[in-house]
Design goal:
about 0% strand, 5 helices, about 90 residues, single chain, mainly alpha
Length: about 90
């Protein structure tokens, strides 16, 4: 949880990344109906998927910059070499 909190604090320091991700999300969501057509029933069916895909793609815009400092100073290597697993799976009982 400490690593996640640290990464969230670092992400909040870079306001330009947040603004560019939101701008990308708004552009994708607003231009999608122009590409698919103005049919309300079809748009209603596709809207949840489009929102999720646009949100995931928007978050991927800032990932390289989020981990760049950790890569440069060796933090990512230390996390990979740590005796703890890299995934968030819970221990088996």
């Amino acid at each position: 949880m400490a690593v996640v909190g640290r990464d969230l604090k670092l992400a909040m320091r870079r306001q330009a990344d947040i603004v560019s991700a939101l701008f990308f999300f708004v552009i994708v969501v607003s231009l999608f109906p122009l590409g698919i057509g103005p049919e309300p029933d079809l748009l209603r069916k596709l809207a949840p998927g489009v929102l999720w895909v646009a949100a995931l793609l928007a978050t991927m815009l800032s990932l390289p910059r989020l981990f760049a400092d950790d890569y440069r100073d060796g933090t990512l290597e230390q996390l990979a070499l740590a005796p703890h697993p890299l995934d968030w799976s819970l221990p088996e009982k």
